[in-house]
Design goal:
The protein is an alpha+beta fold. It has one domain (47-195): tt1808, chain A (Alpha-Beta Complex). The chain has helices at residues 14-27, 48-64, 123-137; strands at 2-6, 31-36, 39-44, 68-71, 75-78, 84-86, 90-94, 104-105, 112-116, 142-147, 152-160, 164-172, 176-179, 185-188. The model is unreliable at 1-10 (pLDDT under 50).
């Protein structure tokens, strides 16, 4: 579950946020903090099915593109002037890309981010509105959203810093979905039906 608390950028600096996030995540490994759209998001680590979806996608990526890693823990600097911090469910980049970059890496070189909807009241705003806007603004080529509410996989591509992703392709779970270049992977999502609760 994620709870969002309203903050304006003048109320909290990124340095303060990063110190709070590092402390909270060190003290309780089930807590994940983000700073998107001037708001702090506090999320608990989700259930086993959420993790199973991530592991499924890691295996698919390793088979199709062994030159890439799907990192489920890397934080990213997003939004204009790097004023946001996001912890996607997965970040796809070349092997070794994040070495030495710390908890919050630049988005240069990131090929795709993954989010999986949670069963909470904030998932619409967070996963369907704020994060796609931030990821497109940061120039990340592909945003993959596995939407467990609508039983769909949404592939966002062709990012525009001002308009967001200009192409959104929707496939019902169970279908095949192509992740466009620079990812270049086709996924058969039939197995994802097993991880819906």
């Amino acid at each position: 579950m994620t709870v969002m608390a309203e903050r304006t950028s003048s109320q909290m600096s990124l340095d303060v946020f990063e110190r709070i996030a590092a402390f909270a995540e060190r003290e309780d490994e089930t807590v994940r903090l983000e700073f998107i759209g001037g708001r702090i998001g506090v999320g608990k680590v989700t259930n086993g099915n959420h993790g199973s979806i991530i592991m499924w996608l890691i295996r698919q990526c390793m088979r199709a593109r062994p030159d890439l890693d799907l990192n489920p823990t890397q934080g990213l600097k997003v939004e204009a002037y790097r004023r946001g911090r996001a912890r996607p469910d997965g970040v796809l980049a070349p092997v070794g890309h994040f070495a030495g970059q710390g908890d919050w890496a630049e988005t240069d070189g990131v090929l795709m981010v993954l989010e999986i909807t949670s069963y909470d009241s904030d998932t619409h705003l967070r996963d369907r509105v704020e994060k796609p806007r931030g990821y497109a603004e940061a120039g990340i080529p592909v945003y993959l959203l596995i939407d467990r509410d609508s039983l769909s996989v949404l592939v966002h591509s062709d990012p525009d810093p001002e308009d967001g992703y200009r192409d959104i392709h929707v496939v019902k779970l169970g279908g095949k979905v192509a992740l466009p270049d620079p990812v270049g992977i086709e996924l058969d999502t039939e197995e994802l039906k097993d991880y819906l609760d």
